[in-house]
Design a protein that fits this description.
Strand order of the largest sheet: 1-2-4-3-5-6-7-8
Strand content: 15-25%
CATH class: Alpha Beta
Largest sheet: 8 strands, mixed
Number of strands: 10
CATH architecture: 3-Layer(aba) Sandwich
Order of helices and strands: EEEHEHEHEHHHHHEEEEH
Structural class: alpha/beta
Distance between the termini: 33 Å
Number of helices: 9
Number of domains: 1
Shape: globular
Length: 295
Amino acid sequence: MPEIEKHMLSLPDGRVIAVYATAQAHAKQATLVLPGLGGGYRSAYSRRIIAALVRGRHRVFFAQFQFLDHPAHSQSRIGTHAGDTKALDYIINWLGRQNEWPALNVVGYSLGGATLLNWLAKQGTAAPVQSAVAVSVPFDLALAEARLRQGFSRVYLAYLLRCQKRQVVHAWKACADASLRRQIMRAGNFALFDDLVTAPMYGFASAQAYYARCSPRQALGHIQVPTLLIHATDDPFMTPEAIPRQQELSPQVRLALRRHGGHVGFVDGLPWRPRYWLEDCIPAFLERQTKALEA
């Protein structure tokens, strides 16, 4: 793992997040990495992509939305959600003020990828980034929520809900509403959790209203930055019907669809000698965009 600097950002809505940065004096470009729910810069996929980008002479910034360092109350915003474009805008504007490189890329995983796609669509041609990659995105949030209740996917559901509940309990420990806390801890799926937490916290009428407004599939035709979508048909978070069709993509968006890859996995090779395909694919795509602009 390369040397990491830590920057604390206070967002206008009161949230405090950490942005971790590789200390690299001679980087030719910068890349912001957005993790999925429960992901951190020490997660296995985060460490791998950070190392791969550093080898390609990127200065890497990693946004840790899950970071909390102070007690809050039941009205405080915590974490992030698929439509959290204002927070991403704040981070990218902060990066722009550093003014240490000629180009910025953004790579988003899972929910972080959903936020990235929604942000790119809102920015249009004004997006201050060179290129983007979104991996294993829940293109349709309602379908993803339903899929997580089925079969082996319930293992992922239990883990992600546990992470989110732990964050809420920590952030809302000063909350006097013990009944609300008990309801949150008993929520057995994301529809219930988002009805209790995400929707009221971010101003949505319900979980279903949140899913309808923030599903990134509807954003794909409006993206004006070269963007690579990486997805697997065996992703346990989604069903094949949620995968966007070619006619839904803008000319700037390319879908790389693989039969196998799971959720942010994409491991090739033999079991005793795995090859993590993403760590080759993502830097290569970003490098091609750089060369195209320089040509």
